Amino acid sequence: MDSPSEQDRLTGTALPTALGIGSILMWGSTIAFSRSLAEELGTLTSGALMLGVGGGAGAIHLLLHPGAFRGALKLPRRYLWGCGALFVGYMLCFYLAIGLSHTREQVIEAGILNYLWPSLTLLLAALLLRKRVRAPLLAAGIAVACGGVVLAMSSGGAVSLSGFAGNLRANAVPYGFAFTGAVLWALYSALSRVWASSDDALATPIFLLASALAVFLLRLGVHENTHWSPRVAAELLYTGLCPTWLGYAFWDVAMRRGNLVLVASLSYFIPVLSTAISSLYLGVPLGMSLWIGCALVVAGALLCKRASLD
Q: Residue 141: which of 290, 17, 21, 261 has the closest Cα?
């Protein structure tokens, strides 16, 4: 039977962990809605607007709760500046990887590289946070889950190793941004636990607004055609409020006070969930390899969870 202190610790991490799982579910819809918005507004325009809507909603929350606003400003400076810079850097890399890809296949392949961040987060948690893990089991879980990600993201048959190599030689820049983004987000997730305080204060709205400004500045140097409609406005509102504002806010809470290893392991579901939602929303047929990839992702996540000794 767990001791009282152990029960308190588990209870204290339950809600933050649940919020982290909620962010994973919301992020599953990001690609479908972002792709739809990018087709109508342009990649950088839609990115800046989504981040602006999310950051604006978070800023309104802070202003309506003066205590939350003061708490955000009192967060450790190394968290505000260090993790803030990592957050903005990730957003820039994410949208540059999408915007600089020449074809849809390159977008998918850049996405595969971007989804290395769950594996990197687990590795950094073991190294930086000194989480006790069974190294061989963790390595096996990461390898199996990564294999599932690659298989799931290439379910349409357009992505192959030979095609990837050819696209890499022809246009390596988006792949570099995608991989750099994966490293930055893994660092953000792990260092949030180290640098932030354990209270309820959130600086996510500040990070989102700073990211919106950075993407908007990039947009000034690029011409993009925009086509507005009620559907586009509804998609923008949903994406800005749910996957962007609530998704990143919930993730921040989970990384700081939840079960980091469990949430990071479950984040392997994002590409599979994203592919399924994109298929339904965008009308893209699913292949059998998606379901095989899903099974590998589940198996890898379970192995990663069992690797934790904390």
A: 261
Please say if the pLDDT value at position 80 is more than 80. yes
Flag whether 6 is in a domain: no
CA–centroid distance for 297 within its chain: 16
Q: Encode burial over 258-268: b for 16+ CB neighbours within 10 A, e otherwise.
A: bbbbbbbbbbb
Condensed to tens digits (0 to 9), the pLDDT of residues 123-163 reads: 887 777 676 778 888 888 888 878 877 776 665 555 556 66
Supply the range of the domain harboring residue 152. Answer: 19-307
Task: Tell me the C-alpha to C-alpha distance, in Å, between residue 245 and each of 129, 202, 252, 254, 263.
Answer: 26, 11, 11, 14, 18
Domain contains 177: yes
Among candidates 114, 115, 109, which has minimal Cα distance to 167? Answer: 109
φ, ψ for residue 101, nearest 5 deg: -75, 135
Q: For residue 43, which amino acid is it?
A: T
Query: What is the spatial distance between Cα 178 and Cα 286, in angstroms, rounded to a whole number?
Result: 24
Q: Is 245 within 8 Å of 19 (Cβ atoms)?
A: no
> What stretch of H or E contains 224?
none
Q: What angle do CA 66, 68, 70 make, to 5 degrees?
A: 70
Total of domains in the chain: 1
**What residue type is 144 in one-letter code?**
V
